[in-house]
Write a structure and sequence with these properties.
Blueprint: H1 2-16, E1 21-27, H2 31-38, E2 45-55, E3 62-68, E4 79-87, H3 91-102, E5 107-116, E6 128-133, E7 138-139, E8 156-157, H4 160-165
Parallel strand pairs: 1-2, 1-4, 4-5, 5-6
Antiparallel strand pairs: 2-3, 7-8
Helix pairs in contact: 1-2
The structure holds guanosine-5'-monophosphate and magnesium ion.
Length: 168
């Protein structure tokens, strides 16, 4: 994880240099990455959050996407970086990028820690991604299964039997 986050931070520091940036973490999965990443960023920085959820109940397949921008700071005239834990079907970041552009952001780019290979259902692609992973349901480093496991300091594939059985 550490090397991946360092790589992402280096790319942003190079790309934005002294240009102010607003980083918006997608709750809740991005919180660990957000905390680790922003401490390595050197440009004038604003940090905010927004909410998006697509996984419902015990299912590990995405359901309807629900977005809440109420927690987010004003982004009109700002260069914005959307930060999420994982790029799967792409529907979340595709929709959020559109919504932020509609809010008047000068530019909207996106960054994820993980990209699942072969799952994308949209044309949109994240601008920065640290690691590609196979199509398995993963937890840890912010990623959850029913709000468990976010605190694991590493990313691990969840045992399919545990998915089938449900937790606790
Ligand atoms: P997308 O819209 O790209 O399909 O899904 C992105 C969101 O789905 C991520 O923000 C994340 O919350 C959730 N997600 C996708 N794949 C996984 C996974 O393997 N594990 C976990 N815990 N969440 C996932
Ligand atoms: Mg998420």
């Amino acid at each position: 994880m550490e090397a991946g986050v360092r790589k992402l931070a280096t790319e942003l520091n190079r790309q934005y240099a002294d240009r102010p940036l607003t980083v918006l973490g997608v709750l809740t999965g991005s919180v660990v990455l957000l905390a680790d990443l922003i401490r390595q960023l050197e440009m004038p920085l604003r940090v905010g959050v927004l909410q998006a959820r697509s996984y419902r109940g015990v299912a590990t397949e995405p359901g309807e996407l629900v977005v809440n921008l109420e927690l987010m700071p004003a982004v009109a005239g700002c260069d914005v970086l959307l930060l999420d834990d994982i790029f799967d079907t792409g529907r979340t970041l595709d929709e959020l990028a559109r919504r932020l552009e509609a809010c008047g952001a000068t530019s909207v780019s996106s960054m994820v820690l993980l990209t699942k290979v072969g799952r994308c259902e949209v044309e949109y692609r994240p601008d920065y991604s640290a690691f590609e992973i196979p199509n398995e349901f993963v937890v840890g480093y912010g990623l959850d299964y029913q709000d468990h496991y976010r605190n694991l300091p590493f990313v691990a594939a969840l045992d399919p039997e545990e998915i089938a059985a449900g937790t606790q």
